[in-house]
Amino acid sequence: MAKLDRVPVAEFPDKYGIVKSVLYDRINRLGIKSQKIRGN
């Protein structure tokens, strides 16, 4: 399995110009499981 950078999903709409509903729909269709990351 590939190791990916952890980027907060909340940053995606501004970074990529996409609305949250479309973003979460795409994540669900791809079968991606999100995880909450706690601070250090």
Q: How would you describe what is shown here?
A:
There is one protein chain. By secondary structure, this protein is an all-alpha fold. Helices cover 40% and strands 0% of the residues. It is built from two helices and no strands. It starts with 11 loop residues before the first helix and ends in a 10-residue tail after the last helix.
User: Average pLDDT, to the nearest integer?
Assistant: 82
Main sheet, how many strands, which sense, barrel? none
Class by helix and strand content?
mainly alpha
Strand tally:
0
What are the segments in which pLDDT stays under 50 over at least 5 consecutive residues? none
Terminal Cα separation, in Å?
25 Å
Q: Please, how many helices?
A: 2
Please state the overall shape, judged from the principal axes of the Cα atoms.
globular
Compute the gyration radius: what is it? 11 Å
What proportion strand?
under 5%
Order of helices and strands: HH
Q: Helical percent range?
A: 40-55%
Explain briefly what this protein structure is.
By secondary structure, this protein is mainly alpha-helical. Helix content is 40%, strand content 0%.
